[in-house]
Structures are given as structure tokens and as C-alpha cells.
Sequence to fold (496 residues):
Amino acid sequence: MDLFEDDTPGDAGDGNMPEFTVSELSGAVKRVIEGEFGFVRVRGELGRISRPRSGHLYLDLKDDKSVISGIVWRGVASKLEMQPEEGMEVIATGRLTTYPGQSRYQIIIEDMRPAGLGALMAMLEKRKAMLQAEGLFDPARKKPLPFLPEIIGVVTSPSGAVIRDILHRLRERFPRKVLIWPVAVQGKSSAAEVARAIEGFNALSPGGALPRPDLLIVARGGGSVEDLWGFNEEIVARAAAASKIPLISAVGHETDTTLIDFVSDRRAPTPTAAAEMAVPVRMELLARTGEGQLRLTRALSHRLEVRGQRLRDLARALPRAEALLDQPRQRLDLLSDRLPQALIRGVDRRRLALSQPAGALRPGLLSRMLATRAEALGRRADRLSIRPIQREIALGADRLSALGKRLDDAGTRRVEEPRAKLDGLDRLLQTLSYKGTLARGYAVVRGEGGQVLTTASAAKEAAGLEIEFADGRMKIGGAASGKPRKAKAPEQGSLF
Fold:
């Protein structure tokens, strides 16, 4: 029987009208709605999106007047090209059905796409504002790029022209080891593959069988907004922000901008420019190194030359070794002359001082004094034993030996200190002596009159030259004898 048969007004109170259960009525409504509409395309704004653990999506499609509940089963949700977000305007394709448990109708969505470029841009701006509010765009969190990375990881398609451009540019500038993680750079699986590649590179262990890169490049050629949309997904942006390895984004052309460009550590306008940012030019480094080495060598040579000239100037200001000993030698001569007379006068004074008490002494007096002392000594000797005396003598001998040793040590030190000073002065004399300078290969050049010649022009004008070496002198030109003779002391400032 047709449940929706038109009733006449008189049948409203007729007790013969058939009765139906709630389930029968709900099933009839379900069959009518599904048979009448089938697959439909609905344009509306997303609202109240729910994502339970089952993986299904529950959402609302609404406009300014009505709301339709929608369901995206787990298998379909994983294949959507875009992730639904509240407030996004979409076009959903699916079949209309009912849910008897709550007496409502709903749409089972099989496909969902943004409703034009404006919807994509609105969703992108909303996502961008959310990530910026979390601080993922903050320049303070961006890591500096390594100056010369040993290993570079590239996330891109292995079959496109992008990877060939990057490898070619790296080979031209500074060849480095490159690890390629192949991914799809557009399509439904692009965002997930790119995020997994970034996380995979970061999971590698430094120095392992597959070494961890020092720098990452995420690259793709140019395209439309839809082609580049995978790099606008939140999962890619968060993976790039969480990367511990410095990352360069090179997605699209210079005018293309994606979310990964804002969270990456450096944005390159093109993949080729990313390779140029990654490594310096090897020849330029070699040129700069050579220039720095040359400047360093020049600076060191100039510094040594200045210090050497300063040392030579100070050496000229030092007095001659002979002059250092002139005054001590003169004082020694004066004291040597005065010493005999001082000894004679000292003996005379002591003889006079001794003669005065000696005049009061007489032999008889001395004899009586000796007898008295001998008698007193005898009385005392009777009371003394020999052992205490021997002990006193032994103790006195020990003290005398210790004092003698100390006296010897003090005398040795008093002699060694002046001797060490004298040896130092002798070495200084040998060092500053012009003889030592001649022994090192220098020579003194004099003219005919014996004057020292210090310039080449003066030597050319001289009629004859006399050259003094360490073992003698020889003449060149004039009345040259050719036989070396004993050198005499040069004039001040005559060494070259």
C-alpha cells in the first residue's frame, strides 16, 4: 500500500485507516528521499566539524537559512584533496539519505572541493593567521644556515627538472653530498609525503650508515595555487617549523608564496637560488683565502721588519762593552794604590795601642800573677774531673765545625754571585762586541782615509776600499796589500 496516498477529508476519523510502525514509516521516508534525489552537489559553508577516533568526519553544510548534516566516511576522508575547516565554502558531492534514529536527513559526502579560488585564499589566510599567532613565523626562532654543509638533503620529485637544476648548480659552485627523498609535489598525497620526508631526515642519526644532512631544501617548480596547495597544508608547515635541521623552502617561482615559506629558516625564489644559498662559490673562497694569506704574510713581514729596525736602533743606543768596565776598573786601580799605605798606617796604630799597656808590664809582676793563677787553677783542677771538660771540648768542637761549614758556604756564595755576574757581563760583552757581529758574516767597509762607508754611492766614489772581516782586513783598489791584518775596534755605527 502506498503510504503517501492522498486521503479524503472524510477519512480523517475513519477507524479503518491502516496503522504503521515508526520504523516502517522512517524506512518509507528513506526510500523516497534516496530514490528522488540520488547524487547531488551542494554548495555551502562548513560548520561544526567533528573528528572522532573512528576516522569519520561529521560536519554541517549551511547557508544563511538552512543547515544539512553531512558525513564523510573514513576511507573518503583520507583521500580528500583538502582538509575541511570551519567557515570554508565548499562544493560537496554525495547522496542524500536519512538517519531514522534521530528523524533527520543527511548527505553522505563522496567528494569535496573548495568553492573557487576565493574560498582557498580565505582558508589560507585563516590558517596563516593561526600559525602566526602561535609564533611559527617569528624571525627569532629561525636557525642560521651552515656556511659549508657536508651533506644536503633535498625533498622533491626525483623525475622533475628541479632536482637536475639543484644538482647542476651545486656542482658548479661547490660539490657536496646530496641525499634525495622522493615525494609527490602535488596531489592528494603530496602534503603527507613532504611532512614525512622532513621528519625522516630529522630522525637520522649524525654519523650513521645514512648520515643526517646538515641542510634541507624543499623544492618544487612553479604552478597554480591548486598545484602548490600541498605546501599550504598545516601538516607541512608544522613539520618544517619543528625541523632541527636548517631548512630552505624553494616552492614555485618568485611570485608564488606558500605557508612553508613563512615557517622555513630561509626562502628561496627558485630551486636554483636555493642551491646558491646552500653553498658558497669554491673559487671565490679560494681567492679570498689566497688574498687573506698574502695580507697576513705582508703584515708579518712588516711587523718583523719594524721590530728588527727597532732592535737595531736600541742596540746602537747601548754603550760599548769596554765603557761598561771603565769606571769599575778605575775605582779598582785607585783602591789598589791606597791599599799599601792603609795597611802600614793600620799596623802603626795597632803597634802604638799595644805599646801603651805593654809598658806597664814587668817580668816579676807577670811571674807573681802566673804563680797566683797557677795556684788557683790547681785548686780548681782538684775539684774538676776530666769528663765534663771532654764533653765541653766535644761540644765546642761540634759548634766550631758547624760554624766553619756555615762560614765556608757563605764564602762560596759570596764568591759565586760576583762570579755569575761577571760571567753575565762577559757574555753580554761577547754579544755586543763588533767581533761577534763580524763572525756572523758582516763586514766593515772603509775608504782611503779610514772613514767608515755606509752607502753604496760613497763606496763607488772612493778611490780604494778597505774591508774588515772577522779574521783580518783586505784592501781593494789603491795600494791594496791583499794580506789580512789584525782588526782594530770599529767606529760607532759601522756595522751592516
